[in-house]
Amino acid sequence: MASSESSSVAPLAASVSLKHILLSEVLSVTSVMRKNSRWAMSTNSYGSFSDSTLASSFGLRRTRQYPEPYISDRASMEQELMRGFQELRRLVKDVEDIRSLPLTTLLGPFFSIIRSPLSTGPITSAALTSLHNFFQCGLVHEGAILLEPALAELSNTVSRCKFEASDSSGDEVTLLKIMTVIQDTMCGAVGDTLGDVEICEMLETVLTTCCQMRLSEILRRSAEATMHTLVKTAFIRLYALNPEVEERKLAGNDGQAQQGEVKLSVSASVPMASAVSSIKETPTESPTETDFTQPATDVSRVQYGLPSVLELLRVLINILDPTDQAHTDSTRLTALRILNVAFEVAGPRICDFPSLSALVLDHGCKYLFQLARSDNPPVLQTTLRTISTMFETMRRDFKLQQELFIAFTIDRLAPPTAPAQAKSARPGTSMSNTPAPSTPKLGPLANIEDSEKIPSTPRLLVAPARGDTRELLLETLALISRHPTFMVDLYVNYDCDMNSENMFERLIEFATKGVYPSNGQEYLPQNSQYLCVDLILAFINHMAFRAEGHSEPWPESFTSPQDLMQTKAQKKLVLTGAARFNAKPKTGLAFLEENKLIYADSQEPRPLSLAKFLKSSARLDKRLLGDFISKPDNLDVLKAFIGLFDFKDKTVADAMRELLEAFRLPGESQQINRITETFAEIYFASGPAEVKSQDAVYVLAYSIIMLNTDLHNPQIRKRMTIEDYMRNLRGVNDGSDFSTSFLLDIYESIRKKEIVMPEEHTGQLGFEYAWKELLTRTRTAGKLMSCNTSLFDLDMFKLVWKPVVSAMAYAFITFDDDYVIERAISGFRQCATLATHFQLPDVFDYVVVSLSQATGLLTESLPSQVPNFPVVDVEGQSVTVSTLSVRFGTNFKGQLAAVVLFNIVNGNGNALREGWTQIVEMFENLFFNSLLPTRMLQMEDFLGGVSTIPLRRSQPSRTQQRSDGLLSALSSYLMTPYGSSAEALVPDATDSDVENTLCTIDCINSCRFDEFYAQIMQLELEPLVAAIRAFEALAHERTVARLKQESGDPGFQAVDEENYSLPYDPVSIFLLETMVSITCQTPAFIEDVWPVVFEHLSALLSTPTQYSILLIERAVVSLLRICLILAQKPSLRDQVYVSFDLLARQPPAISSAVAEQVSAGLILIASKHQDIISSQTEWNVVFALVRSTIGHPEASKQAFEFILSLIEGPTPRVTVDNFSGLVAVLDDYATAASVATEAQQQGRRTQALNVTNSPIVERGKKAVDVLFDLKSFWGSLSQTTNVTGWRHLSLPLLSSLARQSANTSREIRHTAVVHLQRIILGPHLLLNREDQEQVEELFNRVLFPLLDELLKPQVFLRDPLGMPETRLRASALLCKAFMHLEAREGSKADIRVLWIQVLDLLDRLMNIDRRGQLHEAIPESLKNVVLVMNATNSLVPPSPDETEDQRDDRQKALWAATQERIERFLPGFLADVLRPPAPAPAPAPAPAPIPAAPPVPTEAVTAT
After folding, report:
1. Whose C-alpha in 739, 837, 927, 1311 is 20 to 30 A from the C-alpha of 1384?
2. What is the pLDDT at residue 338?
3. Is residue 63 scored above 90 in pLDDT?
4. What local confidence, expressed as pLDDT, does residue 60 receive?
């Protein structure tokens, strides 16, 4: 039958027959037996038979055999054992295929030897070896005859193996062989055919061996290894079982399980001798909880399944009970390791079987969590490993258990009573106040001062973990949290659960605080700090990975994200309300009502609404709750509160237990009375059995409270007995007694299980209460929702970003581990990415701030004066070796931080807001030390293009102002940032300093400042404004704020505050230039940026003399550069004139220094944007700015050309609005020539200024000529506008020419007089000759002031040689103007006053210098005027005959006034000029005549 052998037979069977192997094993066993002297004696009668089989076969009669006296019962047993092998030989002798024989027959002799107590260790070992070989060769196979009975007998045999103790080492080898056979049985091909009873027997055998502490370590370890293999095999079978079917079978067999069950104890303290002689001991008393209960044997035998696995799990878990003194820590260690193997193999599958899951969920977790407090390191380590495996494989079904463990672990690592504090400042580590948990813990929570924190349910008070224990707990926590979904799961399942603690926030808060050193800790980081950093970085890494799109969709079967977020928001309100209630109930209720957490349903009674909240909120102080509901004012709330309990079909003891566990019973008797009365009313309404009245319930409730105190108060020595209790309650049931069984049930219920009121106990009772609450919550908590989704990442990140970034920054700065530093760098990048992804600029700013602090490039304050750093030549390039470059070159972490920082901000500038301040601070520090790229060191203007910001000035004080513009301002400064002052010695740079500086330069190059600076110009509006504000704030600090600080310093009290000025500060110029450069290159956002920049510029220009002249010049240039952009925005054009006005109001010294830049900027703006200047006010501002540049030679020239372009350009821009302004500006240019000429004359220089040798005089003369040319615009302007031509056009121009007719420069003066005469006497004058008012204005505002000015001695002294001629021309002009305008025929105007004024002036002119030409010319001019006036009948002498005088009153008055006035300085003049007709009578004698003046040459009078 070799062909029928199974393919699973071992290779040994292919070459050696099974029969040969069997006989060989028989020979091996019998040989060992014969070696023993006892067995040797038995071999003599080996062949004798006790039965009469052979005799009967031949028909013979055998006589009765009597026992020989020398053969004992023991020898008889030995013979029987030996005979069994002999019979087996005979049986298989003629059988070709021994597989045709029953397996029980083949193995029977071996079983007998193993079971026999007469066997020695070697014999039993040999028999066990044979069994092992039978499994190996395939003799025991799935198709064997009577396999199941054989396996049952085998299980029974190895479980009851007995042999005499001999050599201990040899005996332990035998025990090892037992383990091997059991492993062959369960783990081999026939293992699946075993029944539950056999499995339990074998598992118990191996487990008992593992726990025998008197056995050697090797044996126990080997047995444990075997046990691990067996457990794997047993639990793997769960995957092949149907949970529903197995659970139904298990429930159906519960009633039969008590019949025929065998309980076998697992002992760990059996003496060595008994352990060897009998591994199994039958207990004499009731079995312990760690006994194996063998499932009942059914008639229809089935393969092993759930019952045996359940029994194994029950035994392992019961061994863990820390309160069971029958087991040692060593035994628990073994059970823990075995249980860990079970969880590793079938953890997820265990949860599919309710019976297994319930066992682990309740007692398993309970004992494991208690062992997690163990002080035994091996037990603690193994427990934590088992717990971590449990959560790794079953955490979806262990939601609240995971919460409890994490909370407990955090409490041990960071106890709330003494939180660790970092030695150094830790910005941003504060978390939002997370209310204390409601998860049941052991022991009451310590007092919390913060009124917003919620007292939690009892918490286990354990000592803080120290040393190895701390690291072990932390490593376990890190192991549990390694999943990408872990933090999301915490947030979703706990933080978004109304009844759970905010575990996510707590864990992150603990981890971030754990990065910092604890009190008294050494400076060197500990492993726990590394673990905390790793936990934080893993959290950030997983979130960043999800942000990249590697996120899972949220399952529809889970609670919707919207509901979870709403619960989270409501939870915050509930926690706040509970906290306020705990502080002051009235305040808390007001808050709850305000937020509609109570009284939201108008149809619901208010007491009921409040009662529901009080009963459902686990965050309330139970003591305060009991006190609140028992107050007289809250009786309705008390009734509603107790009415929420379901007392139906519950005993009064259970009802009281449920009620008193909901709140802390108050101490006042009246309050207790209200509670018991209300309870009695509601409980009696539920219809309890055997209770006849409400009063009876009332008495029972009081008796239960007293009984609970009496039986469990440690201060009471004499306890109440059942008899005492029954005696106290006689007749209270409405006059009758309660039944004995009724009261006994109450008594026993309280005696066995104390009513634990909230916040009352701290020890094991407290733990039991807390665990009970946890299990109650577990029934409604549901499964843990686990999904690697990104839906909640934003909310999570918002909660914890600040402490996370701070912790990473601290780790980066203080830790030296390359791996941690690399991870921290990655964390910074990921935080920056998340900040950009979530659009959280605050986060990005904080990352930048943290990294910038780590760079070492920030400084508290920079001095104004740059030290004389040495400059060396390296490969043809000048390198400045500064203090910063040397220090930063040795700071490797700082360099890393700088590179990481600028790699992060490069391309992410739009995410920056407040972080710009740190960026700019680093820029200014690098600039101060000559480490910035050349592009960032430049300043732009309108003249010289681009120049480099000088770092130092050569003279310590302000130089005397000169008038040569930009070159003047820069002449006092060194034009290169790499120059050195002659006032101080330059230190030498060592080779090491140069090398460190080169390292710094390499790092700066790696930071790619050029790219970043270019990206600033591409920023969006909000980050751009933030950047500008950062520059402005630092610039303000170095200028305006510093000026205010230093001028107000006590050391400067003696100094005139207005005259004090800040020294030259190159950093302030750098900040200004960079800010303005960015502004100019982002014109699209000028409307938002302009107010920030102008605030700083106006602050500088409001007190310009108190700053360095170069700073003010750069401020002026900056303002004009921005005005060029403002001019493009119609809405901002008014700001252009605000700026112009600010520039025009500068002090003369400042105006002269910046004139060249002002003129260049103004001309550029006006030429590019001609349309922005339209109104008269705008033109006046422009002309005022032009006027401020007149004192500067070069600027004056440019500005004058600009004015000329307005008048003489291809398209003249002369309008009514700017006409008067142009006249005023041209007048100023001519006046400037006058001032210059006068200054030259006072300097007594040999050569007078004239048009050929003085540009100023040339411009002055040109200005007068242009003034004259402006008359050509009168006609067009007067026709196109409604203005009065005379007053708005002619009069200003004539007034200007009149003023310039007294100019110090002779050329300008004479030119002005000529132009004035041409206009007044010419046809272009916009004067209505019939309007006497206009005529008078001409004389009073033009001619008379001119002559008044010329008559002044100081004016005459300006040009003594040329001034007489000017006076002559002016007097002639006066006379001609009067003749032209007033002495005309037909004029009816009263010219008497004006005529007298003319005569007054002529009088003064004639008599001012009797030796000059004027003395002779005036009478002649006057003569001409008089003759003309007479000819026009204006001045008519009286007739000789008074009766014939035909003059009117006007003529009479004019003649009288004229005669009276002329007679004063020219007596007889009128008589000579106007001779009357010869009178009839002789004339009266005339006074002696005054000699006449010589006649004035006609050409002098009529000269033009």
Report:
1. 1311
2. 95
3. no
4. 57
**pLDDT(185) > 50:** yes
pLDDT for the residue 287: 35
Q: Using a pLDDT cut of 70, give the percent of the chain over it.
A: 82
Among the listed residues 1097, 1099, 1104, the one whose alpha carbon sits nearest the alpha carbon of residue 1120: 1097
Q: How far is CA 321 from the centre of its chain?
A: 46
Q: Kindly tell me if the per-residue pLDDT of 41 is higher than 70.
A: no
| Dist. CA 964–CA 1113, nearest whole Å | 13
Residue 279 pLDDT > 80? no
Q: What angle do CA 996, 999, 1004 make, to 5 degrees?
A: 130
**Which of 777, 775, 834 minimizes the C-alpha distance to 494?**
777
So what's the pLDDT on residue 1102? 92
* 1171-1201 CB burial, b ≥16 within 10 A, e <16: ebbeeeebbbbbbbbbbbbbbbbbbbbbbbe
Contact call for residues 698 and 689 (beta carbons, < 8 A): no
Indicate if the pLDDT at residue 790 is higher than 90: yes
Per-residue pLDDT at 1414 exceeds 70: yes
Predicted pLDDT at 74: 52
Which residues contact residue 47 at a Cβ distance below 8 angstroms, ignoring those fewer than 6 apart?
86
Report the pLDDT value the prediction gives residue 491, as an integer from 0 to 100: 94
Residues 6+ apart with CB under 8 A from 549: none
More confident residue, 1109 or 458: 1109
Confidence at residue 1445, expressed as pLDDT on a 0 to 100 scale: 76
DSSP secondary structure code for residue 1490 in this structure: P
Closest CA to 695 of 742, 720, 671, 729: 729
Residues 6 or more apart in contact with residue 469 via CB below 8 angstroms? 377, 380
Report how far residue 1098's alpha carbon sits from residue 827's, in angstroms, rounded to the nearest whole number.
44
- DSSP labels, 1178-1214: HHHHHHHHHHTTTTSHHHHHHHHHHHHHHHHSSS---
Contacts 24+ apart (CB under 8 A), 196-199: 196/294, 196/295, 196/304, 196/305, 196/307, 196/308, 196/311, 197/152, 197/155, 197/294, 197/295, 197/297, 198/151, 198/152, 198/154, 198/155, 198/156, 198/304, 199/155, 199/234, 199/304, 199/308, 199/312
Distance CA 788, CA 551 (A): 6
Q: Predicted confidence band at 304 (pLDDT cuts at 50, 70, 90)?
A: confident
Q: Is the pLDDT of residue 1002 over 80?
A: yes
Residues 6+ apart with CB under 8 A from 564: 492, 496, 792
Nearest to 1300 by CA among 1201, 1228, 1237: 1228
CA pair distance 1495, 1499, nearest whole angstrom: 11
What are the residues whose beta carbons fall under 8 Å from the beta carbon of 1185, sequence distance 6 or more? 1140, 1143, 1144, 1158, 1162
Q: Given its phi and psi angles, is residue 1359 left (phi above 0), alpha (psi -120 to 50 degrees) or beta?
A: beta
- Lowest average pLDDT, out of 160-164, 529-533, 857-861, 1105-1109, goes to 160-164
| Angle (deg, nearest 10), helices 527-547 and 503-514 | 130
Q: Which residue has the tokens 């999943």?
A: 483
Between CA 69 and CA 77, with CA 72 as vertex, the angle to 5 degrees is: 140
Q: What proportion of the chain, given as a percentage, has pLDDT over 90?
A: 30
Radius of gyration of the chain (CA): 58
Alpha-carbon distance of 119 to 36, in angstroms, equals 10
Beta-bridged to residue 263, according to DSSP, are: 293
Amino acid at 674: R
Plot region of 1433 (φ>0 → left; ψ -120 to 50 → alpha; else → beta): left
Q: Give 1205-1250 as a 3 state SS string.
A: HHHHCCCCCCCHHHHHHHHHHHHHHHHHHHHHHHHHHHCCCCCCCC
| Beta carbons within 10 angstroms of residue 121's beta carbon | 22
Phi and psi at residue 458, in whole multiples of 5°? Answer: -50, 140
What token pair was written down for 435?
């209310």
Statement: the pTM of the whole predicted model exceeds 0.90: no
Q: Which two tokens stand for residue 180?
A: 């091997």
